[in-house]
Write a structure and sequence with these properties.
single chain; 6 strands; 10 helices; 40% helix; two-stranded antiparallel sheet
């Protein structure tokens, strides 16, 4: 519904006292901007990996696990705007950020035509104790946005985390792989059989978590796995 002049004036007055800011750079959002300012929407470092089946992120998994497609919306760098964006989602309870980015990336995945056969979306699960403490799973929120844009259901029940692993932040690649190597389980093979699954996470660093999840999913007969993330630390 179109705003009246009075409503526009009231919105602008409210923004002076309670400014809505860009989740990436912190600058005030103008009217008709959502989550990201126009500058960040165009200038954040997009990977465009979803357009190239043999991109450098996909190559990280070659010889490790058989994935159909691998993509990430942005490149991740420490202290950069993408890190700030993920921080808002993960620690500041900004679920709206995850949904927005999911819708944004979902529309790009559809345009690429490379993800057309995906039948369901599975977010990398958190352990129930950790999810209760945080209040939500950031990957699940991103998955919800993807599902809305792609018109594909989200499955949060068929893959679970059975062990509360330690933080991955300061671990080496081998330590990360050991830390998640045997902590995921498939609960409902029948629901996944012969399906193309889109496995999603917030950020991919070494790929150890994605690899561990994908290996469990691929144990189900006929299952194929593709991957999508908000960001990756692979350059």
């Amino acid at each position: 519904m179109k705003q009246t002049k009075l409503e526009i004036i009231l919105d602008e007055l409210l923004s002076l006292f309670y400014p809505i800011t860009c989740a990436a750079c912190g600058n005030s959002l103008h009217r008709n901007e959502e989550i990201l300012c126009t500058f960040c929407n165009y200038q954040l470092p997009k990977t465009n990996f979803h357009l190239d089946p043999d991109n450098i992120l996909a190559q990280v998994f070659w010889g490790r696990v058989n994935l159909e497609r691998v993509g990430a919306l942005y490149f991740f760098t420490k202290t950069g705007k993408v890190q700030h964006l993920l921080h808002q989602l993960k620690y500041k309870k900004r679920k709206d950020v995850g949904c927005y980015l999911g819708r944004l990336y979902g529309s790009e995945l559809i345009k690429s035509g490379l993800f057309d056969s995906v039948a369901c979306i599975i977010p990398v699960p958190l352990h129930p104790d950790k999810q209760r403490k945080r209040g939500y799973n950031q990957s699940e929120v991103f998955a919800a946005g993807l599902a809305e844009a792609m018109n594909i259901p989200v499955d949060t029940a068929s893959l679970i985390r059975t062990v509360a692993s330690e933080s991955q932040t300061r671990k080496s690649r081998f330590s990360r792989w050991k830390n998640v190597g045997d902590i995921f389980a498939v609960t409902d093979e029948a629901s996944l059989r012969d399906k193309h699954v889109l496995l999603v996470d917030d950020v991919i660093t070494t790929g150890a978590t994605i690899e561990a999840c994908a290996m469990r999913l691929l144990e189900v007969a006929g299952t194929r796995v593709s991957v999508a993330a908000i960001a990756c630390a692979i350059h």
